[in-house]
Design a protein that fits this description.
The structure holds two protein chains of two kinds. Chain A is α/β, with parallel strands linked by helices. Chain A is built from seven helices and ten strands. A six-stranded mixed beta sheet of chain A has the order 6-7-8-3-9-10, with helices on both faces. Chain A has a four-stranded antiparallel beta sheet with strand order 2-1-4-5, with helices on one face. Chain A is globular and about 45 Å long. Chain B is α+β, with helices and mostly antiparallel strands. Chain B has helices at residues 7-43, 57-69, 81-92, 96-99, 120-131, 143-184, 187-195, 200-236, 246-268, and strands at 46-51, 73-79, 108-113, 136-140. Chain B starts with 6 loop residues before the first helix and ends in a 6-residue tail after the last helix. Classes of the chains: A alpha/beta, B alpha+beta. At the A-B interface, helix 2 of A face helix 7 and helix 8 of B.
């Protein structure tokens, strides 16, 4: 479903990734680990095609980095949900609107948006806070809202970039449980993290990036 | 995402656009009036063509007709010896026959020039052509005045052109930066739109609509201030200040185009690969 074939990437003449190859199957949960600056976020950006490899190919379902046209990129991104360490919620909208945003931009009708958003907010246990603004929520709640936005469009995979990086251990556990639940419903999860405790508590396959290469 | 969510940024954009358009409006207003003043001065320009003193009235009239045919000649008025004597009496208060035994004033004609033939170079060409006509003794006009008008007009146009170019440059830079900053302030929403699969046209649409509305409001604001200024100048300084109403439509069109183009340009850097 997701494949990296011999990917090289240089940014500003600096090698970021070298000959990276891996595959993630449908419905799989995979950790992407490595030290800070190892290239974990870069791998995710290559997946949602914010970056393109200098050599090799990235494939997500029927989209290939070698062949994709600019106008097809939005349609690829509709197949992916992206979660960031800093949540990236819009501060001037409430949680319902932040979640609905992902559906509004793809032109979904209002009635269907309401149905889907309420369902997904219930899944992340935030339906009672749907009218709150991000700054009225705790970090854990904000990350749950960001996850709701990422999955409301039923993506084939969730790409999570250090989603627990800004959270305490209780909130981190809660986020992990939500990601597990999402994964159990059939969505693949690729989570970049360097939190070994979480990895031990929720064991899954690990892809380690070390000095720009896949370590194990 | 428009005015409600970024009220201050919108107010700044509309105000800077309005100021830029108002400056442009003043500049155009000034140019229109300078042009008109120069046009008036030029249109007052007359050539006085004197015929040989001994030509008959009929011959002088025929010569006048010949002068009339020269390209650039507008209205031509024939002045017979008798008319010239009457003019002398009017100007000096004495009958010419009281001063002299005979009338030495030659028949002549006064030639107004068509617009487009009122520059120094064009007048000289016409004067040469008239001078070649058999029976014409002299052509007189305010050569020095015309030369001075041409000289100052050149400088006025150079200064106006330079000033206008600087003004336009400042206005565009000011506006581009203001809009760039307002879009920069909303880069998060653009980024999230891109990440959630919005197409480039979907992302652009609200910003272009916003650019359109801001351009329109800025232009209406500038137009209102310009209109008030024109009334004030007419009342206090120049009663005869000329204002062309289509300038307001030009300002509105320019405001809308500048607003939309600035939005599109400022956005483009965020939409590289969406």
């Amino acid at each position: 479903m997701i494949e990296f074939y011999n990917v090289d990437l240089n940014i500003d003449k600096k090698t970021i990734l070298r000959d990276v190859s891996f595959r993630i199957l449908k419905g799989e949960f995979v950790y992407l680990t490595g030290a800070s600056g190892a290239g974990k976020s870069t791998v995710l950006r290559l997946l949602y095609m914010d970056l393109f490899p200098d050599r090799g190919t990235v494939i997500i379902e029927r989209y290939s980095s070698a062949k994709i046209k600019d106008k097809e990129i939005p349609y690829l991104r509709r197949q992916l949900g992206v979660v960031f360490q800093d949540f990236k919620l819009l501060p001037d909208r409430n949680i319902f609107d932040n979640t609905a945003f992902a559906l509004r931009v793809i032109g979904m009708p209002g009635k269907e948006i309401k149905r889907r958003v309420l369902r997904v907010l219930t899944d992340v246990n935030l339906s009672h806070k749907r009218n709150h603004y991000p700054d009225e929520l705790s970090g854990g709640e904000q990350q749950r809202a960001a996850i709701a936005r990422a999955v409301v469009n039923n993506p084939i995979a969730v790409l999570a970039d250090e989603p627990t990086g800004n959270l305490d251990s209780d909130n981190s556990l809660e986020i992990m449980e939500i990601l597990q639940k999402i994964n159990q419903s059939g969505t693949a999860v690729l989570m970049a993290t360097h939190d070994n405790e979480l990895i031990s508590a929720f064991p899954h396959r690990i892809i380690e990036i070390k000095e720009g290469r896949v370590g194990r | 995402m428009g005015f409600k969510r970024a009220r201050l940024a919108s107010v700044i954009t509309i105000t800077s656009l309005a100021l830029a358009l108002l400056l442009a409006g003043y500049f155009i207003l000034f140019s229109i009036n300078v042009n008109r003043w120069i046009g008036e001065k030029r249109s007052q320009m007359e050539l006085e063509v004197f015929f040989e003193n001994d030509v008959s009235n009929a011959k002088a009239k025929a010569l006048t007709a010949q002068v009339q045919k020269i390209p650039g000649a507008g209205s031509v008025v024939y002045i017979s010896k008798k008319d010239a004597a009457a003019r002398f009496e009017k100007e000096f208060g004495r009958n010419i026959y009281d001063v002299l035994d005979s009338n030495p004033l030659p028949p002549s004609c006064r030639v107004k020039l068509k617009s487009g033939f009122q520059t120094s170079a064009a007048v000289q060409k016409i004067v040469l052509q008239i001078g070649r006509i058999e029976g014409v003794s002299d052509v007189v006009y305010e050569k020095e005045l015309l030369r001075l008008i041409d000289y100052y007009v050149t400088w006025i146009y150079i200064i106006l052109g330079g000033f206008g170019a600087i003004l336009l440059f400042i206005a565009v830079i000011l506006l581009y930066n203001t809009i760039r900053l307002t879009i920069f302030a909303r880069r998060d929403i653009i980024e999230i739109m891109g990440l959630t699969g919005a197409t480039a046209s979907f992302i652009k649409r609200p910003f272009l609509i916003e650019g359109f509305v801001q351009g329109l409001l800025g232009a209406l604001f500038a137009g209102g201030l310009l209109s008030l200024s024109v009334s004030a100048i007419r009342r206090l300084l120049f009663h005869s200040l000329v204002m062309q109403d289509n300038l307001y439509f030009i300002l509105i069109g320019a405001g809308i185009v500048i607003g939309m183009v600035s939005s599109a340009l400022s956005l483009s850097r965020y939409l590289d690969r969406i």
